[in-house]
Amino acid sequence: MFNKKFRMIALFLIVLLSLSAFSGCAPKPAETTAAPAETTAAPAETTAAPAETTAASGEVFQVAFGGSSPGGVYYYMIGVLANLLSEQLPGLNVTNVSTGASVANAIGVAKGELHAGLTYGSLVYEIWNGIDTFEGQGDIGKNVRGVAKAYASPHYFVALRSSGIKTISDLEGKTISVGPPGSGAQYNSDIILNALGLNVKKEYLAFADATYAIKEGRIDAFGQSGAPSGAITELCETEDVIVIPFSDAEMDKLEAASQFYYRDNLPQDVYKGMTEPVQMPFFSVYWIVNKDVPDDVVYQMTKTAFQPENMAALKDGYILWEQLKEDSETFEALGPEIHPGAKKFFDEN
């Protein structure tokens, strides 16, 4: 009797406990299921944050601007321009990248390794068409766009007056530094020496190194594109230097060999020791950019450089900047278009 009553009580307790457990736990899964839904919404809020941060963060666009090796004209010109643009455009940081100069800049811009650079009109034509200097490099030139004409540049050779060199023909058989490898100076020196049929022993020195080499007698002369050159200006302070003139007959040969050269005179006040203007070949130098540089970046750089007060500052920094001008029609005749950012500025003015 006792056992039967005990079993009935025990059974009742087991059923009661089971019901309590079921009723106490049932709501919890619903509560737990709701929590992940709330957690899932949170990442969407987090995802939106970077876009807002990017728009308001004032991130700086880094511009790699190809110049030349130290002592070269481009090195000083881009140094002045880079400082001005970086100071006046908080969203840009323009770096003066030391390169081999014109040839290296054309390749660097075309490949997207540089955002901008200075180079020759002749090289723009060649790289656009994949010929001569750039033969075998494919269609990389199709990435090049123009901004403006930087200046008209001469190419010339200098020697110490004590060397006895007085004419271009006197370079025959001499040791000449034609310029750093891949530089515009090398490019022009090679074209000119070949066109005039001069046989020389070539060295490939950086501009600053060439001034030491000529003083030490290791070379007889060296080629330079652009004037004034910082390296030659410094050389003239300690040495009696001759800027070697081109004769009319030599210029006739050179103009027949290349459509990009024309004759003009380097003024006599460019270098210490010059007593009269010197005839030599000239050509155009352009500011180029890669086609993928954002339109607004190119627009802001162009607009800033062309402000009258800034053009005056650029000229004060390096005299050749006084020649900066729009030259869209002539540039586009070489093949590439003017970059949309630069075109926008020129269309507004």
Query: What's the CATH C level?
Result: Alpha Beta
Range of helix content: 40-55%
What's the main sheet like?
A: 10 strands, mixed
Structural class based on helices, strands and sheet pairing: alpha/beta
Write a brief structural summary:
The chain has helices at 2-25, 27-56, 73-88, 102-111, 121-129, 184-195, 207-215, 230-238, 248-257, 295-305, 308-317, 328-332, 340-348, and strands spanning 61-66, 92-97, 116-120, 144-160, 175-177, 201-203, 221-225, 241-243, 262-266, 278-290. The protein is of the alpha/beta class.
Description:
There is one protein chain. The model is unreliable at 1-57 (pLDDT under 50). Helix content is 47%, strand content 19%. The protein has one domain: Periplasmic binding protein-like II (D-Maltodextrin-Binding Protein, domain 2). It is globular and about 60 Å long. Helix 6 links the parallel strand 5 (175-177) and strand 6 (201-203). Strands 1, 2, 3, 4, 5, 6, 7, 8, 9 and 10 form a ten-stranded mixed β-sheet that branches. The chain contains 13 helices and ten strands. The protein has 349 residues and is α/β, with parallel strands linked by helices.
Features of the shown structure:
D-Maltodextrin-Binding Protein, domain 2, disordered N terminus, alpha/beta, 349 residues, 13 helices, 10-stranded mixed sheet
